[in-house]
Amino acid sequence: MLWKNHNLKKVYLAVFIMIALTLFACSSDETSGGEDEDGVTTITFWHENSGVGEEAINAVVDAFNEKHQDIKVDAVYTAANESQNEKLLAAVAGGNPPDVSWFDRFKVGSWADQGSLTDLTAYAEKDGITGDKYYPFAWEEATYQDKLYAMPVDTDARLLFYNKDAFKDAGLDPEKPPKTIDELEEAAEKLTIKDGNRFKRIGFIPWYNQGWLYSWGWAYGGNFYDEEAGKVTADDPKVVESLEWMTKYAKEYNVEDITGFTDSSGSGEMDPFLTGQLAMHIGGNWSISGYLKYKPDLNYGVTPIPTPTGENFTSWSGGMAVVIPKGAEHPDEAWEFVKFFGSEEGQEIYNGMYKTLSVIDSVNEKLGYKDDPIFSEFINILPESHNRPVLPEGELLWNELSNAVDNAIHGNGKPKDLLKSANEKVNAALE
């Protein structure tokens, strides 16, 4: 069903595999593992982390190697020349993939559907590993058609960031951030300072940063996928309502003026939230390190994404995992490492060093995240967080939703019609 009627897609895939095989010829030396003379099996682990992220991965590898006398993990950084996805596909197509690979959970659906990942279900069942200790969204994102294909490692979440000093300046209580859409609109109006068509300070931009339609569609109580029917539901009435609200906002504040503001905005220390030009935005926990680096005295808070009712708060999350590519030479030994990385010990080492959120609640507590006034808000929302639908056409859905938002806020179509069109296109691709 999932790749049916995709003749053109099959041609593209065949061409891509041919290109991948060419890349593979230049990289096959990095996949070699095997058994040494002393009986130690060496397995290769590809990853794309650098800096502190690479140090965290190496720490997990070292801890595993110390515990296993008969298995040695060799971590290999692979993103120096070509993207890891292309290189990994090249290795799988060439029949000599690494034993383990770092992997974006968002791609599990498409890769599992095309047979590029090893089914881990039997391994997990044998060792009594279930999704019980993981946040529901993380385990769901690692599975496809009720089979486990990845071991989730880290995660993220999206919340409303707000500048407390800007709140004070606008006569708002900095300890009472908006909880409802109405309160958000009222705060945005008071926070906005405009001179002609130029914003000196803008209160809020719904689609800025992490203000994706997933963020607002779920906040409005909508759904993007019907599991039982196996159909995308991008035109869910609540999702449509959320896009209608974004469109109304674009008209009220003049989308062209907003675009002028965002196009001229900087990054790093010139991020508009740091310079005080943007009072509120939807952002992720990864922004925290940048704020600490560029403006450690920034007086800000975070709160759940507002909803129409001020209740039923939610978010959405992604993150990385470890997988065993199809055709790995040492799948049994690879599973031992995958299992370790997904354990509390492996999670604590990696997420503790990299300062990222674990997919295991008890690990986040051990790392002290629940005691931090900012991090704790992210931890608190994780049990209610969603994952993007695990589909072979997940990327197409993402692109269609993004296009619908862009067209709607610029007046190029009605939200309902745009989402209906997106829905039809993705569901046709899934047939």
TrEMBL record:
**Pfam families recorded:** SBP_bac_1 (PF01547)
Chloroplast listed as a keyword: no
GO BP, sorted A to Z: maltodextrin transmembrane transport; maltose transport
Query: Per UniProt, what is one GO molecular function of this protein?
Result: maltose binding
Signal peptide annotation: 1-25
Q: Which PROSITE patterns match?
A: PROKAR_LIPOPROTEIN
Annotated keywords: Signal, Transport
UniProt GO cellular component terms: ATP-binding cassette (ABC) transporter complex, substrate-binding subunit-containing
**SUPFAM superfamilies with a match to the protein in the record:** Periplasmic binding protein-like II
State the name under which the record lists this protein: Maltodextrin-binding protein MdxE
